[in-house]
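Thread: zinc ion complex, take 2
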Amino acid sequence: MMLRDRPKGRLPADLTCVRCLEIKPTEELDRLLWCDECLASAKRRAMVRGWIAGGVLFVILALYVLVWVQPDFSLIPTAWIMMLLVAFYLGARVAREFAFAWDRLRNRGAVEATPPVQAPKHKGEDEAQAHW
Ligand SMILES: [Zn+2]
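Output below.
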């Protein structure tokens, strides 16, 4: 347990997840006070962003190869396809790590919380999302 080294009795049995604001057992929260569900949803979101980024990289590279390189596809088409697939896969992996790290670092409070009424959107959020 990661909380083992703390003085006994200092932590309450339940803490509030900083992301969804739900009360959870302390052992279900990690050191940033994210619950398991929030962690899982952040990973899912990062994965989706990663695939999108990989797809964008794939399209850009494919266009570059087709427009500028113009290889003789009759000779080694598989090599080019392999290169594009590797770029897609690695791009998606790297982008996913960055998206997840970004989410963790930013660590905006109550981002997964579901308010009873639709909360007004924060200004600048859409622009920030658009970069992904
Ligand atoms: Zn949570």
